[in-house]
Design brief:
The protein has helices spanning 19-26, 35-49, 52-58, and strands at 2-4, 11-13. The chain is mainly alpha-helical. The longest helix is centred in the middle third of the chain and has 15 residues, at 35-49. It has one domain (2-48). The structure holds zinc ion. Zinc ion is lined by residues 5, 7-8, 10, 33-34, 36-37. The site of zinc ion (ZN) has 8 residues, from helix 2.
């Protein structure tokens, strides 16, 4: 099947054996990302999770102690 990348509009052909193809068929709303964009996003996510900003966000405590 064909799937268009939501980020760069590249149209990829996915093998019907690919679990991703099944997912896209069952849920057409499911967004597809080409491998290049997926790698880029993954890299960025890893960068963010290892940054101080992300850590300080996680350290914010819920206001339950008053
Ligand atoms: Zn892409």
């Amino acid at each position: 099947m064909k799937a268009r990348c939501v980020l760069c509009d590249t149209i990829d052909v996915i093998s019907d054996d690919n679990p991703l193809a099944k997912k896209l068929r069952n849920r057409p709303i499911h967004t597809y990302m080409c491998e290049a964009c997926h790698t880029r996003i993954t890299d960025r996510t890893i960068e963010r999770t290892s940054s101080d900003h992300y850590r300080s966000y996680k350290d914010i405590q819920p206001k339950e102690d008053w």
